[in-house]
Specification:
Order of helices and strands: HEEHEHEEH
Shape: globular
Bound molecules: tetrahydrodeoxyuridine
CATH class: Alpha Beta
Strand order of the largest sheet: 2-1-3-4-5
Helix content: 25-40%
Distance between the termini: 35 Å
Strand content: 15-25%
Number of domains: 1
Low-confidence stretches: none
Largest sheet: 5 strands, mixed
CATH topology: Cytidine Deaminase, domain 2
Radius of gyration: 14 Å
């Protein structure tokens, strides 16, 4: 799957965003080495602090399917013109999946006319992860 298709999958996921409090729909799409795509969107709550981010939802879905690595790329879309980067917690959540099989996924931060391409290791340098517990 091309990066463009991965971005389209993230945008499609954002259409199901439940974000009535922030009005900030986010979509995420994870691409794995076997070609599988797993998507997520943000899910908010009347207890505001309980909001789940799109990337975290996607990572949890992937792990629920039994995935324990092979994460190659992640597309993240927001509603604004500027690209958004994953929040700190999501970086850590994505790092778990990445470190399990030693990948350094490409994070496609998607804006209206710009796609910022960053490695997870750039967004989360010196990460704490499963290897740190060994
Ligand atoms: N959000 C995400 O889904 N991913 C991020 O990386 C940043 C923030 C969501 C959480 C909340 O529902 C809304 O965006 C506004 O913060």
């Amino acid at each position: 799957m091309t990066d463009e298709a991965l971005i389209a999958a993230a945008r499609q996921a954002a259409r199901h965003s439940y974000s009535p409090y922030s009005n900030f729909p986010v979509g995420a799409a994870l691409r794995f080495a076997d070609g599988a795509i797993v998507t997520g969107t943000n899910v908010e709550n009347a207890s505001y602090g309980l909001a789940l981010c799109a990337e975290t939802v996607a990572a949890a879905r992937a792990m629920t399917e039994g995935r324990r690595g092979g994460l190659e790329a992640v597309a993240v879309t927001g509603p604004g013109a500027e690209p958004i980067t994953p929040c700190g917690r999501c970086r850590q959540v994505l790092n778990e999946l990445a470190q399990l099989s030693g990948t350094d996924p490409l994070i496609l931060c998607v804006g209206k006319s710009e796609v910022r391409r960053l490695r997870l290791s750039e967004l989360l340098p010196h990460a704490f992860g499963p290897a740190s517990l060994a």
